[in-house]
Amino acid sequence: MEHNTLQNIKIIVTGIFAALTARLGALAAPVYILICLNMADYATGFVAAPYRGEPRSSQVGFRGIAKKVCMWLLVALGGVLDWLMAYAMETIGIQLTFHFMVAALVAVWLICNEIISILENIGDIGVELPPVLMRLVRWVKVAAEDKAKVPDWDGEGVPRGGGGADAPKTIPAGAQLLTLPIPLMGVTAGYKNAKYKAQFGFGHYGIDAVSQDGAREVYALGNGQVLAAGLDGTAGDYSGLGWVTVIRYDKVYIPGTGKVQDLIATTFHHEPGSIRVSAGDKVTARTVIARYGNTGGTTLPGGGRMGAHLHLQLDRDTSYPFYCSGISGKGSRLLKRGTSDSTVDPYQVLTIGEGQRAYTRDTGWAADYSSLPQAAGFAAQEVGISLEEYQAAVARAETAEAENAALKSKIITARAALGQDLDFEDRA
After folding, report:
1. Under a CB-based contact definition with an 8 Å cutoff, are residues 96 and 128 in contact?
2. For residue 260, is it within any domain?
3. In terms of domains, do 351 and 412 share one?
4. Are residues 192 and 285 in the same domain?
């Protein structure tokens, strides 16, 4: 009897999957993969929660389940759009040869997001990740986005970046933009986030961020001067704020307010001995200043240590650059406890530079950093072209520069082979 029941269940399940596969066609594989990855992400997220200092509660668990259900709903909405396009085409006499194109692209994009989330969970648990994995997933995700690229309208007939309310504004002469400190930056905790304060019991006057691809290099935000760099702790790596940098950036254009302001950027928790700059050094957005780690008093309520991350804090008080809001100052050698709050929200300041991307971890502790303005958008505005035209021009210029450099190298090699020890610079 029991054998017959199991056999009947197998037949029913097989029949359901066969019917779904026949109905979904090419969409079946991405849908099944997405469901499997949903379960894997939920499981790894549950295991990783204590490592992040996040609670395991029924409320958090329900929110996670609701998120997965909404993913399936997005795929279903993509299927509805596919049906509407097919119906519209058939109405005017055009027979489409493909099905579920939009739904498949949505599913692939969600699959990439789930894989990224799983890799992040595994990384938070403490498993070292091959950087190539994250890069490959991002490449597939970007490819899916590019495949589905359509004009981005704001609902009032104006394309974004072409004069809408959120279009970049012209930067005043002599001002500069600040870009992301981590090229592929995931924000885990935001500025003065109420949920963060309720969780940990103290205010957060900056942002916490990690790298999306596992690389821990931290870059300067723009053109600035290092005021201090080194170990803040008086009792070793795990006192004070650990290894820190303090950098001044002058004439910063703040997209969120449209103002120009001199700012102090302070970074905490760098790896021991990883800081590459010293007081007095000039930096640019291409300067690697350090690697992020978990040095300093990064302990969690109830014990344990926070995982490796970067803390970035921006302050408009340039007269007292070493005073920081939100820190106790205990065990600190370089930094001091601020007596008044002059901090600035990084979300209002930062822009996404060339080759950079930003996203927000699903903690509820930060704004949507993927919506930051593109630095290239301001450059495009300066020359009166679209962002896409500007990016294409930059790509052509970079290609030409690389080709010229390769040709120059070949000429120098040929001259050397002929006994002509002459470089291009020698002709001057």
Report:
1. no
2. yes
3. no
4. yes
Token couple for 259: 């103002």
From CA 40, how far away is CA 202, in angstroms rounded?
A: 33
293 with 362, same domain?
A: yes
Residues 294 and 408 in one domain: no
Q: Would you list the DSSP string of 351-396?
A: EB-TT-EEEE-TTSSS--GGGSPBHHHHHHHHHT--HHHHHHHHHH
Q: Which backbone phi and psi does 299 adopt, to 5 degrees?
A: -95, 150
How many domains in the chain? 3
Q: Give the whole-angstrom CA distance, residue 331 versus residue 295.
A: 13
Contact status, residue 76 vs residue 34, Cβ threshold 8 Å: no
- 3-state per-residue secondary structure call for 295-360: CCCCECCCCCECCCEEEEEEECCCCCCCEECCCCCCCECCCEECCCCCEECHHHHEEECCCCEEEE
The pLDDT score that the predictor gives to residue 111 is 84
- Cα 75 to Cα 283: distance, rounded to the nearest angstrom: 45
> For residue range 103-150, what is the model confidence (pLDDT) as tens digits?
888 888 888 878 877 877 787 777 777 766 666 666 665 555 555 544
Expressed as residue numbers, the domain containing 408 is 385-427
Whether residue 120 is found in the same domain as residue 214:
no
For 356-373, what is each residue's pLDDT tens digit? 999 887 667 788 888 899
Same domain, 373 and 392: no
